Amino acid sequence: MFKYGIDHLTVDKVIAIAEGTLKAEITSEAKDKVNVCRGKVDKMANSDAAIYGINTGFGPLCDVQITPEETSKLQENLLITHAVGVGNPINKKLSKIMMICKVHALCQGFSGVRLEMIERIVYFIENDLLPVVPEQGSVGASGDLAPLSHLFLPLLGEGEFWVGDSIESAKKVLKDNGLEPLILQAKEGLGLINGTQFILAHAILGLKKMEYLLDLADVAGAMTLEGYSGNVSPFKEELHKIRPFEGNLKVAERMRMLLKDSQNVEDTSFPRVQDPYSIRCMPQVHGASRNAYNHLNEMAEIEMNSVTDNPIVLSETEAISGGNFHGQPLAMVLDYASIAVAELGNISDRRSYLLLEGKYGLPRLLTTAGGLNSGFMIPQYTTAALVTENKSLCFPPSADSVPTSLGQEDHVSMGSISGRKFNQILGNLDKILAIEFMYAAQAMDFRRPNKFSSIIEENFKLIRNKVAKLEEDRVLKDDINALVVMVKNQEFKVA
């Protein structure tokens, strides 16, 4: 059982809560922290002193004080006016992850919201009542204001929910579940929509996918090396111990595991001094991407256990209007991770290209009937297009800033765009690696009767169960799509 606001949250725990394999609860300890902080806010709301967002307006209107009687309307207006997102709805799972992360933050007792409101969000999570959230509109500072507003409008009976694959009004869904809309109190609107949970959810979902694709890229590279009849000496442990980057050491170790006991790599029929970089430098390139993954994972874990709304309530008289909502800490590492994922695609495309050159016992374009047949000439065009698309997506949104809120918010992170692009690049990598697997399996067929390592043989069999060896030209679209589905469903054995 995971305890909101008390236990340490990780990527795996968030995913497990979202998938229902890990139960989560608000314990009495967390409830006490929430209630104590709420009491502090109630006192501030009735104070004569101006305290931002509790008894004042927002942004450039922070100098306008609000009466206690206007407090509820102020918070309701905040959500309604900030729900201006556009574009397609985000993945339903992202909505759920956002709510999980928000509950964990609110339960730490610095946000000043009522327990009743947090419990309603938990009810949404546990009953798969997932709000519809547009993908565009957040600049990633003052929190992810627009997406979080859409996420929590249904608390008020506004906005929309997913019902299966259909969209229905929140008012109807609440009624169907026997729930009354909530009336927000002082500070609660701010507690809901100030925060980085949109950026964070994209980081979490992307990290989980990237973890698998890092391992899968090693497998694809090892299969290409087998098909290319490459040299295994660049993976020796002694070599990497004298340049001991964590990622490099890990990839070199994995390559040794993936190629262990292979008859093919011991075959000396095609000797050469060294292989091209896309074969020889996999530990350095894949390893650098692993280092970026480690960095993003570290930063995301800090963020998911942090309080990122505003103001932060520290005592009965002190609510600090700071900048914990600013998305820059995640935005920059998401941009770094995007480059890292794109590079996995770049080097994969180069390995696929190598297999087409007709060297070291392989026929040109991986077909023995070239001329009449084009063989595997054209799928590499697709990987080239995907690689370039990924390069274009690597422009760092975190390097940009457009002032908002009459200059009050004069530097923003644009981290929401960083998070979305990170996941787009990961989606393109699925397809690039799928095509490399198709090429590698074809090349490996030309190395028979040599046997490969047990894990490579197992993956070869998985491919051949879906995609037959190419003997003469056929429509390859279905073959590619079948392998893309295998990548997306994580069907390949990676360890």
UniProtKB/TrEMBL annotation:
One of its GO terms (cellular component) is cytoplasm. CDD domains: PAL-HAL (cd00332). It is found in: Cytoplasm. The keyword Iron-sulfur does not apply. GO terms for biological process: L-histidine catabolic process to glutamate and formamide; L-histidine catabolic process to glutamate and formate. Keywords: Histidine metabolism, Lyase. One of its GO terms (molecular function) is histidine ammonia-lyase activity. Belongs to the PAL/histidase family. This is Histidine ammonia-lyase.
